[in-house]
Amino acid sequence: MSELQAHIRLSVEDSAKYAIMPGDPGRIDNIKTFLTDAKEIAYNRELRSVSGYYKGVKVLAVSTGMGGASTGIAVEELHNIGVEYMIRIGSCGALDPKMKLGDLLLVNGAVRDEGTSKAYIESIYPAIPDTELLINVIKAAKENKVPFYIGKARSHDSFYTDREEEIDKYWSEKGIMGADMETAALFVIGSLRGVKTASVLNTVVEYNGNLTDEINNYVDGEVSMKQGESNEILVALEAFVLEEKREKERMK
Ligand SMILES: O=P(O)(O)O[C@H]1O[C@H](CO)[C@@H](O)[C@H]1O
Ligand SMILES: O=c1cc[nH]c(=O)[nH]1
Q1: What CATH number is attached to the domain comprising 63?
Q2: Where is the Nucleoside phosphorylase domain (predicted)?
Q3: Which of 56, 63, 181, 189 has its CA 20 to 30 A from that of 111?
Q4: Is there an atom of ligand 1 within 6 Å of 211 CB?
């Protein structure tokens, strides 16, 4: 589809094979520091887009905003312009007491406790990343010696119901490691559209930490969380480079 997409405001001419996708448009500033020839190409609503190169590989950085619904729109429109690989680089609340601020969660499956993915397909359909892309993400995390865990996340739609503590305790006891809002929609819509997806989450609230205080600290630039953010960007970009290498090997 060559037309201008209605929300991301990009068309095929702007496209790249790879997209790195934070929730927060502000996080694009940090991504830009990793790129050469970075160009702001669109900014509509919460969807800010930059194109650039990492180690010679063209990438788009596109923010999704908060929640499955706006993420779903971004995934669909990026797919329409030809993006084939999408890695979310988000923030999460820890549901596992081991996870410390700035630790990464490399998500190998998500609980679909949100509405967007259910609008597409029934809840028994799995929310899982692309296996090869997850392998690249894990390899990149190991090679770059960043602190990480591999595990499941719960994607949710609410932040401030009266039952948040109880809900977190329930999923924590079931072995779910982190909570975010977008991963399940990304995995499910990506799978249905044939897009290869992964999700890397930076811990910004520890289990039993104070949600409001810790997210405020992240926004104010607390060091370990900012380091986690830089680590997740590096891991995602390195995973794309590994994918390019794998593809070249396959073509030989
Ligand atoms: O920091 P991002 O990537 O937006 O991710 C997390 O932060 C937001 C809530 O504070 C939600 O979007 C949640 O998924
Ligand atoms: O519980 C939490 C904490 C941070 N971010 C989320 O999306 N959920």
Answers
A1: 3.40.50.1580
A2: 17-201
A3: 63
A4: no
